[in-house]
Amino acid sequence: MTDPAPLSPSTHTPPRRYRASGKVILLGEHAVVYGHPALAAAITPGCEVWHAAPAAPGLSLTIAAWERTFRPDDASDLGRALAALAETLGVTDAALEGVLHLPGGGGLGSSAALGVACARALLGGDDDLERTLAGALAWEKVFHGNPSGVDHTLAALGGVRRFVKGEGASRVGLRRGMTLVIADSGERASTRDMVASVAAQVAHRPAETRRTLEAIAALVRNACLALPEGDFKTLGDMMNLNQMLLSSLLLSTERLETLCAAARGAGALGAKLTGAGGGGCMVALCPDEAATVARVTAALTALGAPTRQVEVTP
Fold first, then answer.
1. What are the pLDDT digits (tens) for 103-144?
2. Over the stretch 42-56, which tens digit does the pLDDT of each residue have?
């Protein structure tokens, strides 16, 4: 059998790309696992996935930048996640290709963005939110064991949202846009391991640890009142306090603390780790002045941290 002739340039239609956002957790990581609210913002670009053409029978996902193709029957986590997604959605045949615009393991929701984009591609659109979220949750469980749900929810919905596990997400209004500078510590830790670490603290020091988690929840509530008023100073203060509480739970690192201090010293209103901790990325909230954003970026870059500026719009 001969291979089919390729489509000519005049008849070729570029494949539709299915997109999903990354995220930063502004406040509330880990506490959200225990039923407390978290405050998160979607960031773009996150991930893009499309159908390869022509497609061979079976299910596969190719990430060209990694020079790898994943299938449900391989031993990789991504292969197992693809299998969980396909089973949840009832899909058996599709050849997908994807591009990630986020660093893996950095706390920016890269796995969730890829899962949501794959779910949208397999479903053929963005309209079936319930099935998209169900499939992406099955995908996320492979990587994170007991995910809070905030990552894949923000990946699908976008915006700035208050999220409560088991209840879903509600949009938080912004009076004006805000500027974030994200820096990658270069360190990596397993989300599953960091969640397990907090669970061990809850088991061994329940009263003290739960008080810490409740204090984090109070910060989220205050920030949700401040954002619609355009009060970024209060949000920055809440971020700094949240970082102290996360550090008390042994979730920060010396590198993350150094980056946060440098951002604050350069004029950031607040700075904290984002995501599971133990490494990954930190996020700094900047005032509107371009000069301050430039100083914060320069201070983090001087420490050897790759940075990116993100504009969060109302």
1. 887 788 899 999 999 999 999 876 789 999 999 999 999 988
2. 998 889 999 987 666
Residue 182 near residue 55, CB atoms below 8 Å = no
**In the predicted model, what is the mean pLDDT of residues 13-39?**
92
Tokens of 232: 């970024």
Q: What angle do CA 97, 99, 101 make, to 5 degrees?
A: 165
Assess whether 151 carries a catalytic annotation: yes
Nearest by Cα to 278 from 30, 28, 81, 78: 30
* Integer Cα distance of 104 and 8 in angstroms: 36
Please state the length of the chain: 314
Report yes or no: 17 and 50 within 8 Å, Cβ to Cβ. yes
220, 32 in Cβ contact below 8 A? Answer: no
Q: Domain 18-171 belongs to what architecture?
A: 2-Layer Sandwich (3.30)
The residue from 3, 73, 93, 151 that is catalytic is 151
DSSP, residue by residue, 127-188: --HHHHHHHHHHHHHHHHSS--SHHHHHHHH-SEEEEETTTEEEE---SS-EEEEEEE-S--
Mean pLDDT score, 200-213: 96
pLDDT value at residue 54:
66
Three-state secondary-structure class, residue 124: coil
In which region does residue 214 sit, left (phi positive, over 0), alpha (psi from -120 to 50) or beta (all else)?
alpha
CATH architecture of structural domain 178-312: 2-Layer Sandwich (3.30)
Output the pTM of the full model: 0.84
Calculate helix-pair angle for 290-302, 254-265, nearest 10 degrees.
Answer: 150
User: Tell me, what's the pLDDT at 11?
Assistant: 53
Burial of 305 (0-12, 13-18, 19+ CB in 10 A): buried
Q: How far apart are CA 301 and CA 139, in angstroms?
A: 34
Residue 183: what residue type?
A: A
> Domain extents for the chain?
18-171, 178-312
Query: Among 144, 133, 63, which Cα is nearest to 111's?
Result: 144
